[in-house]
């Protein structure tokens, strides 16, 4: 089963690290990613640029509105996502508990991926009927 892991970090704490410590942390994290790949638990992942590059899109009164910055203003920022293949939530927790960034103080939110296959199939059928 797929689990989506959102990795949060404290930007100020991260930026205060000496470059050598930041590099060592990245090296340990990428090494763990390699471990996940080698054992069939890596489903993908992406780092995100900083929150100052975010644009939040909403709809107000039927019109699309954008706001500079992230949706939620918090001390911790989402730094990236990881797609994890695990047997169940307990297994996902076991795998992410070994992630080097956890020992550094980062937080991971783990959620099961939603299975949209049946909803997509029903939508496709409705759309086909509407065009017929």
Task: Please describe what this structure looks like.
- The chain has helices at residues 11-16, 19-38, 89-97, 100-104, 117-131, and strands at residues 2-10, 42-47, 55-60, 63-68, 76-85, 107-112.
- The protein is of the alpha+beta class and 132 residues long.
- Strands 2-5-1-6 form a four-stranded antiparallel β-sheet. Strands 3-4 form a two-stranded antiparallel ribbon.
Properties at a glance:
132 residues, alpha+beta, four-stranded antiparallel beta sheet, two-stranded antiparallel sheet, 5 helices
The largest sheet is: 4 strands, antiparallel
Structural category: alpha+beta
DSSP helix count? 5
The low-confidence runs, each spanning 5 or more residues with pLDDT under 50, are: none
SSE series = EHHEEEEHHEH
Span of the ends, CA to CA: 36 Å
The whole-angstrom Rg is 19 Å
> What is the typical, i.e. mean, pLDDT?
92
Q: Which geometry do the CA atoms define?
A: flat
Task: Order the strands across the largest sheet as they lie in space.
Answer: 2-5-1-6
How much helix, percentage-wise, in residues? 40-55%
Strand content: 25-35%
Instruction: Count all strands and give the number.
Output: 6
